[in-house]
Design a protein that fits this description.
It is a single chain. This protein has 83 residues and is mainly α. It contains four helices and no strands. Helix 1 packs antiparallel against helix 4, helix 2 packs antiparallel against helix 3 and helix 3 packs antiparallel against helix 4. The longest helix has 21 residues. The radius of gyration is 12 Å and the shape is elongated.
Length: 83
């Protein structure tokens, strides 16, 4: 489950980076919120929730989310003995 989450989180963040429509951005961010909360990645979920709720540009928050995803993926990799 953690390996699947790790791959999916990366895929969703990449999709979020290319999404221009606010409705689509919210939908993708919402998916990140749910999956991150399900595995206990609460800092990542909080950042994605901020993006989901924002009406303004989110470049800074998106960068922070990318960094959070990278840290979470590193943790999962080490936890699973892959790194």
């Amino acid at each position: 489950m953690l390996a699947l989450f790790s791959r999916e989180a990366l895929r969703l963040v990449e999709k979020l980076k290319t999404t221009e429509a606010i409705d689509q951005r919210r939908e993708v961010a919402h998916a990140i919120v749910g999956s991150a909360r399900n595995v206990g990645a609460f800092p990542m979920a909080d950042l994605a929730a901020q993006i989901e709720q924002s009406h303004a540009p989110v470049a800074g928050r998106l960068k922070a989310l990318e960094q959070s995803v990278a840290r979470t993926r590193d943790f999962i990799s080490q936890y699973l003995g892959e790194g």
